[in-house]
Amino acid sequence: MLIDFLALVGGLIVLVFAADWFVDGTSSIARNLGVSPLLIGLTIVGLGTSAPEILVASLASLQGNPGLAIGNAIGSNIANMGLILGATALISPLAFHSGLLKRELPVLMLISVVCYVLAFDGLSVFDGVLMLSGLAAFLFWLIRTAMAERNSDTLTQEVEAEIPEVMSNNKAWLYFAVGLVGLLVSSKVLVWAAVNIAHTMGVSDLVIGLTIVALGTSLPELAASIGSVLKGEHDLAVGNVIGSNVYNLLAVYSLPALIAPGAVDATVISRDFPVLLAFTAALFILGIGLSKAGNINRWEGAGLLSAYLYYQWVIYQSVI
Questions:
Q1: Could you give all domains of the chain from N- to C-terminal order, each with its CATH number?
Q2: What pTM was computed for the model?
């Protein structure tokens, strides 16, 4: 099993770097073609940072391990809100002011509830199509709103500022190609190693997806959020998490429905999705605000992080 663990760690490391190269290359190609930096930030960069989850979910579903794909999608969202926002707020309290960001929060809450309801009777191809249609509608609304407020909203300005500098076409295509190959190979290795570990330890693919794989594929968001808050871009730090969670639910979670439709593990419905909804509700309250709108202080960050660690402990207790 040592080889499997080494392969898992190696796959995760390559996956993180490959995702970064893929995003830089694709963003530069689009920028060289004259695409607006704001559009690049809202679509290419957003989807690119979710590329690890998308590829892992695709390969896992194709290989007959939809539990790994579902666990990856749900676990990544829980990690984004508990681990990433919690750790980021401990480094620097988050105060975000974007009106667009605050309008995204109820949309994320609605999407989370709908995806939970869809799980009750199992995931079907129709459910997958519905989720992808929802993603298209969300992106249309997001782009239209952001373009209308690009000169007045904090988040849109920070998104534009973070787009990579223009690089030559040859270099951009090289980054794109290397990143894409790296994503494909590392995600294949990661899924293979994760399934082997699950079988050796006698646990379900779902558990591995909720824990090790979810944590690993969330590393790009962790790096992006900490980097943003260190530069004082608090809206972008929170925006990265909200955007990633939407993509995970509508793009990643839809893949097992489209590729390997079937029943959803009862544990997901009774334990994991309710935890996801609880974290989303907490983020909604902190973002909309009961008294301090758009604020996550260090105590609240510690609470989010503690809740995430407790959830991981509960999962650990369920398999020993």
A1: 2-319 (1.20.1420.30)
A2: 0.86
